[in-house]
Amino acid sequence: MQSLDAFAGEKLAALDAKSLRRRLKPTRRHDGAVVERDGKRLISFSCNDYLGLSHHHLVRAAAAEAALNYGAGAAASRLVTGDHPLLSDLEKRLARLKGTEAACVFGSGYLANTGTIPTLVGPGDAVFVDALAHACIWSGAQLSGARIVKFAHNDVEDLARLLKAERPLARRALVATDGVFSMDGDIAPLDRLSALCAEHDAWLLSDDAHGVGVLAQGRGSAALFPDADIPLQMGTLSKALGSYGGYVCGSQAVIDLLKTRARTLVYATGLPPASAAAALAALDIIESEPELTEAPLAKARLFTRHLGLPDAQSPIVPVIMGGAEAALAASAALEAQGFLVVAIRPPTVPEGTARLRLAFSAQHGDADVIRLANAVAALR
Q: Residues 13-32: pLDDT tens digits?
């Protein structure tokens, strides 16, 4: 339809004018931290495969064997015939890793949050969300129909003020945050958030997509706060575990409820067997090689210390450039030196905070980390 094409064209033109249009760029990943774009090989500092497990021979072999034994896809939702045996095995392993009674595997991390939040809260309830929480948390909160209350990033005092004012007006309350923030790399004060939730009878959900496998010997950000009560621990299989999918760990009762009422599980095809098997193999490696889980943070701190920056808290280090054009120019300058560091622009990050988001991997060589640091220093 002409009106639809005109609408799309106008929106694209407006994005182009602000340097905010996004384009897909086919990228082939090779072993190690090397990627190939347009026939050019680059050292990538923009991949979330923090341990390099997506290319690990044991992980790939497990995925291949599962596809041969169980088929390429699950072929139905889990409540029909898509609940293949590997999913139960994976849920037991995830619950063990997180120290919970049970776990529920979803098709992706996005589906985990957009299914879990509306299952637990709805109209008449309240969801308190960190201002910089991942988009899927915001989507889940919006889908729930509950009142959404935004609190300042990692600001426990602001959340306390808001809970005091808003919690009495709601039947149920949920506080949702990232454990490790995907664009800033900092860690939520889960111990203080947990205490505050206990005081106000609110349920704490922590998204640990970027903490599992790389913090606390692979157990994730929640394990940094052993006394914290975090009844909803969400995460993904697609970062440090090198596979694909998402999960929520919690009590048996909560997990049973999700499996019968979370729309993104009930009405979605189950995770493919290859993805589940790959995640299981990755968990084996994480449990048997704790030194591997320490490497990404060590590489990130090598970078920050070389530049005189505060120690990195996670494998993610942002370099704020300000405007979108400045971030794109910096990314291009680094690419010319053999590095892939993708520019992150609004709306992924707030206006005026376009950045280079550096993601460090166990597979990065120290010499390349230092060379990147020197290249970034020249841009600042």
A: 999 999 999 999 999 999 88
